[in-house]
Specification:
It comes from Lentzea flaviverrucosa. This is Excreted virulence factor EspC, type VII ESX diderm. This protein is about 80% helix and about 0% strand. It is mainly alpha-helical and about 100 residues long.
Length: about 100
């Protein structure tokens, strides 16, 4: 007999943790838009760099969107796995209860 087991509640808690981390991407995005890509001081010759800053911000947004979607997808998959384990456990419980009657 093996000592391995799966706790569906722990899987669901981990999925919620992943969702929380995915929401933190919005905090990072806000920082990038407000502070890191601020072009307020780009005057004179530095104004030529403004389109480059816009490109970097757009690339960073795409990267954040990609990472956030992957974390949310992983959270959904972990939730599905927890449900599958719960369904299998319930089915096995019914089978054993039927055998004991």
């Amino acid at each position: 007999m093996t000592s391995l087991f799966t706790d569906a509640a722990e899987l669901r808690a981990y999925a919620e943790y992943l969702r929380t981390e995915a929401q933190e991407f919005e905090t990072i995005r806000k920082y990038v838009h407000v502070t890191a890509c601020d072009k307020a001081g780009f005057t004179g010759l530095l104004s030529l760099l403004q389109p480059g800053v816009d490109v970097v911000r757009a690339l960073f947004d795409e990267s954040l969107d990609f990472g956030k979607s992957k974390l949310e997808g992983a959270a959904t998959a972990v939730d599905s796995t927890a449900k599958a384990y719960e369904d299998i456990d319930a089915l096995q419980r019914r089978i054993f209860e039927g055998l004991l009657k």
